[in-house]
Amino acid sequence: MTQMALVIDLNVCVGCHACVTSCKEWNTSGEAGSLADFRPYDADPSGTFFNRVQTFEAGKYPLADTIHFPKSCLHCEDPPCVPVCPTGASYKRKEDGLVLVDYDRCIGCKYCAWACPYGAREIDEARKEMTKCTLCSDRIYNEALPERDRKPACVLACPTSARLFGDIHDPDSVVSQAIRERGGYQLMPEWGTRPSNHYLPRQPVTSCGGGACSCKTAQELEPVTLEAQLEHGALNLASVATRV
């Protein structure tokens, strides 16, 4: 059985929110739209987003680290939001495993939001309907688009390629290989929902400058400009994204 999903590499996500804005742009004008935005800049903002990025600090100085954690519907293989829906508006599609909402049947009761342990569903205040990530189901099968563009908007927009998309049940897919090789994990597996989306773990911050370290000190290093690194191909995309 096919199960389409995202794999997110926390080691290269720079928190730029390109995935958030591209998701909003595509879905508010697509089958899921329009998505409401009330008071976007007030003290109590309200808006409908399928994807959000949470940023937090981990560790202690001098080994502190900033972690950016994108989160959306995880398209669980055993989704608790589906059986609680009184109208059958929430359903799991058999052909690709996507968890979707039939907006014509949704009555906005919020039962599915209460059942979801990940807080991945949001009520649209204007439409009074429950909304969520669809993995761009209206895009990934759109034959009017070039094949390279038949991916979720968030995947295409990510400047560091932190988001991968594919069938996790296919052992040869890029997502399955990433999970297998990088130790990809599910979010809160103890709930037994079997989330399809996986995360590739953040590499821990390690100390430098100790007795066993052969690195040069800051005083010994020659200054290298951003332009010089780009010219010699020594700067990866994640570094560029944090500076421009």
TrEMBL record:
Residues 4-34, 63-95, 97-126 form the 4Fe-4S ferredoxin-type domain. Keywords: 4Fe-4S, Iron, Iron-sulfur, Metal-binding. The keyword rRNA-binding does not apply. CDD domains: PsrB. Pfam families: Fer4_11. InterPro entries: 4Fe4S_Fe-S-bd, 4Fe4S_Fe_S_CS, ET_IronSulfur_Cluster-Binding. It comes from the Bacteria. GO terms for molecular function: 4 iron, 4 sulfur cluster binding; metal ion binding. PANTHER family: PROTEIN NRFC, PROTEIN NRFC HOMOLOG. This is 4Fe-4S dicluster domain-containing protein.
